[in-house]
Amino acid sequence: MNFWESKTLAEMTTEEWESLCDNCGKCCLNKLEDEETGDIYFTSVVCDLIDLDTCRCTRYAERCTLVPECLDLKQHDFSEYTWLPSTCAYRLLTDGKTLPDWHPLVSGTPDSVKEAGVAIGSYAMKESDVEDLEDHIIEWLDEPSTR
User: Fold this and answer.
1) 43 bridge partner residues
2) How far is Cα 79 from Cα 58, in angstroms, rounded to an integer?
3) Model-level pTM?
4) Could you give the CA distance from residue 127 to residue 85 in angstroms, rounded to a whole number?
5) How do the domains of the chain map onto residue ranges?
6) Helices assigned H by DSSP within 7-81
7) Which helix (H) or strand (E) holds 91?
8) How far is residue 54 CA from its own chain's centroid?
9) Which family is this sequence assigned to (predicted)?
10) 23/114 Cα distance (integer angstroms)
């Protein structure tokens, strides 16, 4: 049995936890919250620290210091993960679901995320290139706005 099928997120080692990230980059997309409804909307605008070829943070260890809005998921209650994209391994496992076939831990290759069209590298743009986030709200067919 695979570790993600036999352990809770809280029971995982740091190495196991980090390997759950599929490097899609969706969590690094800027989000906007509707103050009246609490709905969260993803934009196609990403933090300037992300490498759009690999969809990985170029300053991962320092990210929360360099970008105060950046969240360290391990510092939050798993029940708060509802804002994460529906494809995110942390959210899937928290919700009692399995990892998709394209996830690198299942497929055995990191390229499967790009091949499945899940990675943001093909459409995301850096914060420094954008003036108005509201002009870049995106909607995924499988991703309703979240509360």
Assistant:
1) 137
2) 28
3) 0.85
4) 20
5) 3-136
6) 14-19, 63-66
7) helix 89-94
8) 13
9) Belongs to the UPF0260 family.
10) 9
On the 0-12 / 13-18 / 19+ scale of CB atoms within 10 A, 79 is exposed
Secondary structure (3-state) at 18: helix
Return d(Cα 117, Cα 22) in angstroms, integer. Answer: 12
Nearest CA to 21 out of 54, 68, 63 is that of 54
Closest CA to 88 of 18, 27, 16, 7: 27
- Check pLDDT > 70 for residue 139: yes
Pair 58, 52: CB distance under 8 Å: no
* Residue (of 14, 138, 147) closest to 82 by Cα position: 147
| 25 pLDDT tier (thresholds 50, 70, 90) | very high
Would you say residue 103 has pLDDT above 90? yes
Given a contact cutoff of 8 angstroms between Cβ atoms, the answer to whether 47 and 64 are in contact is no
Q: Is 67 exposed, middle or buried (0-12, 13-18, 19+ CB in 10 A)?
A: middle
CA 41, CA 43: separation in Å to the nearest integer? 7
Q: Which amino acid is at 135?
A: D
